[in-house]
Structures are given as C-alpha cells and as structure tokens.
Design a protein that fits this description.
Layout lengths: L19 H6 L4 E7 L27 H18 L7 E8 L7 H15 L1 E11 L6 H9 L4 E7 L3 H6 L9 H10 L3 E8 L6 H13 L4 E6 L7 H7 L8 H17 L2 E5 L2 E4 L10 H4 L12 H7 L3 E5 L4 E4 L2 E5 L3 H9 L5 E5 L3 H12 L6 E2 L5 H4 L2 H6 L5 H5 L2 E2 L3 H5 L1 H8 L1
Helix pairs in contact: 2-3, 2-12, 3-4, 7-9
Amino acid sequence: MGSALPLGDPAPLDGLLPGSAAELSHGHPFGVYLHVPFCRVRCGYCDFNTYTSSELRGVKQVDYAGQAVLEVGLAADVLTRSGIDERPVSTVFFGGGTPTLLPSAQLVQMLRSVDDAWGLALGAEVTTEANPDSVDARYLVELAAAGFTRVSFGMQSAVPHVLKTLDRTHDPERVPEVVQWARDAGLQVSVDLIYGTPGESLGDWERSLDAALAMQPDHLSAYALIVEQGTKLARQIRSGVYPVPDDDLEADMYELADARLSSAGYEWYEVSNWARSASAAPATPNADALTGPATPTSEFRSRHNLAYWQGHDWWGIGPGAHSHVGGTRWWNVKHPAAYAERILSGHSPAAGRETPDGESREIERVLLLARIRSGLPIATLAAEARQQIAGLIADGLIDGRAALRGSVELTLRGRLLADAVVRRLT
C-alpha cells in the first residue's frame, strides 16, 4: 500500500501556506497532479500508494472523482488566501494506480474542475497513465475530445516471463493495438519500460526495446527496477525464489537502450527518458484539430515531469499525493478512507509539510537539474562545485563541449553514475 509518508511538521487543517510561499512561487509555472489510487491487482514490485478493492475499507471507487473535485476547490481557495499569484495550469497529469480504471467521464470531470478553478494555459499538456488492458478505442477518443493530449502506457516488457515476475496481467500482444488507438484519437503516446527484472536477460530486454520501437511512440521511459522493501518481490528475492538483480547487467541494459533509441531518432533529455524528434514522429489523423500543427522536438518531452525536475510549483490531488508551492512541500494522508473523511469534512487532507532551508534546496536543485540534459548552468554552482568541473570532464562523466557552453551535461558514463556526479557538485 505504498511506502511510509515522510516526517515533517504538522499541516494546518485549513491548508494555508506560510508567508514565504507567495514570494518564492512568483514567476513559476503551475501544474496539477491527480492521483487515482486504484488497481485491479497489486504488482509484486510496486511500492506506490495504490489499493485493490479488498483494501478500500468501505470507500467506494465511484465516489472518488467527486472527492478529488472537492480538493481542487480547496486548493484554489488556499492559494488565493495564501496570496499566491493566480496562474493558469501548464500541465495536468493523472497518475496512480491506474487512472483509467475509472470511467472516462470521471477523468473528464476532474480535468474540468481544474480548468474551472484556474484555467488551462494555451497548449497545456494533459496526460493520463494507462494500463494496456484498461482502455479501448472509444475511451481514448473520449479523453482526446475532452482535452487530454497525451497517454502513457505501462508496457514494462514484451516478454511473458518478465511480465509474470512483475505480476503484470496485460497481454503484450495488445500493446501495439492500444498505441494505435491512441494515435488515431490524436493523442501523443509514451511507453514505459522497466529493465533489470530478476531472470531478465539482455536478449529479453532487447526484445522489449524492439517491440517498443516498432510502435514508434513519441516518448519512451526506461527505468531500472528498484526492489522496494516490503513488496512481494522483495520477499521473493529474500527467500530465494528470484535472484538479486545484477547491477552490471542493468548497466549493460541501459547502454543498449540508449544505443537503440538514439539510432531510432530519440534523444535523451533526462537520465531515464527519451523523446522522438518531431520530424521523425508518425502523423496523427486528428493532429490539426486536437494538438495544433507539428510540434518541435521538445514538445514530445513530458513537460509535467520536467516541471518536477526544474522545481516548478504543483498541487497534488488525492491520497498520498505530494505538492510543492513556493518552496513549501506537503503530502496528503495515505488511505482513501482517511482522505475522504478529511475532504468531506471540509479540511485539508495534508498530513504533514516542510519548508527546506537554503542549503537543502540547493542540494535538491543540483540533484534534479543534473539529470536533465544541459539543465544545470555551471554559473549557478557554488565556487567549490565549479572547481569539480575539470575533474568530472577528465573522468568522462560530463561533456566537455557542453561545459564550455556553460552547462553540466552528463555523458553516457555520467548517466550511469549520476549520483556520484551530484555528490561531487554538492
């Protein structure tokens, strides 16, 4: 049911933000994350804050959209009363869980509440995650007609025994079909993959990459499997059912992914994310009507996730959702029952919050921006950190030409050792 919430200060029941938030939020774009905490089954590796029907303690899934709408209204009121500048929403992201377990009308209801509260910026990016077996062609058309622009499919693997280890229940043969349905609806398509599953060979991973590339998605994410304590997979590894993931094999898998994706016309823009160039992207039949003219390469990146890495403001709606506005962070109560109780009583669902000091914010800024291609200006680093640049170039961890242009850009080796780079810069 998800990892424990972080420690922090008590959050006020009215949700009001400290006075510093108004000043620090000025000029930052604003996004909204909507967490839908429901899944049909729990995947063995998953540590997200999600719940199957047997874990809901009497909460009804059908009531959730209305509760989320109430939090949107509370959020708009809190920002106004906290003196935060009004801003249209640049990005909206529905994550989970499986947002598309809800009827499309309920996702549309939540999106419209965001638009009513703040307005959607011109060209706003609106994404939902989806499992391949949770949507059909009509569902995707209904989302596109309501203003969704993007769908991210949890493919994870094309290899049946890998999916079985991960407890993924979808048929890998269905993924190309749902990707085509999304494209026919005029939606941009992202595909998520996981590598390093116990028992997965380099050949298995290559098969998954080939299957993903054959679908020509606009965007592709490839994440190394993290075995989280408390999960079913962690227990299986501890008891010897599956072997411990091999770090060297995972490095080989990452290098293979980067080589295959680069040769297919994708550019990495964050350590685990690649976007297709606009010139190579397949045309969508409804592109002019739904998404405007052809977009530049950068528009196939996940702008919502970039907002996290760039330290922008966002409000997280739903159980366990995290928010960040004007340097203040907070997180909601985890269980849907506790969340519903707070929301229906008119109280903020926030369980705790924190306002990191300047040193902590700087460490976080470097940690996040270093992962983005050319995202960390050298001139903004402390003097001691700038003295590390020559050594990082010599060690093959950052690109020397990018450094001459004034930016930290990780090499392939640097991406594999990103944490070590950050430690030397902080």
